[in-house]
Design goal:
By secondary structure, the protein is of the alpha/beta class. It has two domains: 166 residues, Rossmann fold, CATH 3.40.50; 159 residues, Dihydrodipicolinate Reductase, domain 2, CATH 3.30.360.10. It is built from twelve helices and 16 strands. Helix 1 crosses helix 11 and helix 11 packs across helix 12. Bound molecules: nicotinamide-adenine-dinucleotide (NAD). Nicotinamide-adenine-dinucleotide binds next to helix 1 and strand 2.
């Protein structure tokens, strides 16, 4: 029987994970839980996803909007083999005891604290750590992007030290209240930023310092990366290693893609759902070696890079595949890799 998956929180991440789950031959979406009967609730109904009430006191709002509910979130979680919690930061922690009471393993997202869970997760970085765990956190969009990049570099060349400046989008396109509108903010202003320690939840031994900025952009994050390697490959050799990974896309120079706007256009032209870009996008010509220092720029689509990772984390927790098998299956089913 296929893996029965529940999704609690049907927003930016939840709706994407729901669609990705329905594409997996070995998984079945039991349903999604929501708090409000907004356009996304209507979308879930249109897609035929059974809709459950995340909060009992709000059931009336769905009735008023004429949206039929299949039940409560507790009923949804009880019927599933695993729940993907994609609620706003901090709500996952509140939901943890419910998942425990219903004896259902749970995946959380990057907005939750690393201390909440048995292990943080990145498919390429530490798949095995999630096997049999009850509470697993799929790391944030930025940490996912960094883990995917660092994993093959560490394996192939060894990493002496990584230094990354993260130029972060102010908010997602639909987050009309976020900023800055006209500024460039060191954020967090204290250094190094929390992103490095977050990478250490996946790779405890990698020496990494990170700095963060926030800018008036919504489409993607951009990372300026310097990795001091333990050996001295040529830039072409590094490109070949990164090119072998389906979740790292080396933007060919001929594509004439100069930033996130053209990357999103590229994804739309190729029919990507919601113009999603699941892959790290590395500017091929930016990959340079100076001695044993590697430099490159990569763009990360914050709304979607964690989606294939959630799918892999489901298989990891339930021990139904090993890392390479799961990554290939997820990539094939979703069409990851340009
Ligand atoms: P979102 O606000 O877009 O979606 C969250 C959804 O959960 C909304 O539909 C909201 O109505 C619903 N919700 C609110 N309270 C709830 C409750 N008690 N029970 C069930 N549902 C509830 O948020 P998001 O961007 O999808 O973020 C979810 C998680 O994913 C956070 O931990 C966030 O840090 C992480 N994350 C977000 C991004 C991103 O760029 N948006 C990237 C990576 C990870």
């Amino acid at each position: 029987m296929s893996i029965q998956v529940a999704i609690n929180g049907y927003g930016t991440i939840g709706k994407r994970v729901a669609d990705a789950v329905t594409l997996q031959p070995d998984m079945e979406l039991v349903g999604v839980a929501k708090t409000s009967p907004n356009h996304e609730a209507e979308l879930a109904v249109e897609k035929g996803y059974p809709l459950y009430a995340a909060v009992e006191e709000r059931i009336e709002l769905f009735e008023d909007a004429g949206i039929d509910l299949a039940g409560t979130v507790e009923e949804l979680v009880s019927a599933a083999d695993i729940v993907v919690d994609a609620t706003p930061s901090g709500i996952g922690a509140e939901n943890k005891s419910m998942y425990d009471d219903l004896d259902t393993p749970a995946l959380y997202q990057g907005g939750e604290d690393a201390d909440l869970v048995d292990t943080s997760f990145n498919a390429r970085g530490n798949f095995e750590a999630a096997e049999g765990a009850d509470h697993v956190r799929v790391v944030s969009c930025n940490t996912t992007g960094l883990s995917r990049l660092l994993a093959p570099l560490e394996e192939e060349y060894g990493i002496e030290k990584a230094r990354v400046t993260l130029v972060r989008r102010g908010g997602d396109p639909a987050q009309s209240g976020r900023g800055p509108i006209n500024d460039i903010l060191p954020n967090p202003v204290s250094l190094p930023s929390h992103h490095g320690p977050d990478v250490n939840t996946i790779f405890p031994d990698i020496d990494i310092d990170t700095l963060g900025l926030k800018v008036p952009a919504t489409l993607m994050h951009t990372h300026s990366v310097n990795v001091t390697l333990e050996s001295t490959p040529t830039a072409d050799e590094v490109r070949d290693v990164l090119d072998e990974q389906r979740r790292t896309f080396l933007i060919p120079e001929e594509h004439d893609i100069d930033g996130a706007g053209k990357l999103k256009e590229f994804a739309m032209d190729r029919g990507r759902p919601r113009a999603d870009i699941w892959e790290n996008c590395i500017w091929s010509e930016s990959a340079s070696m100076e001695g044993n220092d590697l430099y490159l720029f990569q763009a990360i689509h914050q709304e979607s890079d964690v989606v294939p990772e959630n799918v892999d984390a489901i298989r990891a927790v339930l021990s139904t595949a090993d890392a390479s098998d799961s990554i290939v299956r997820t990539n094939e089913a979703m069409g990851v890799g340009f």
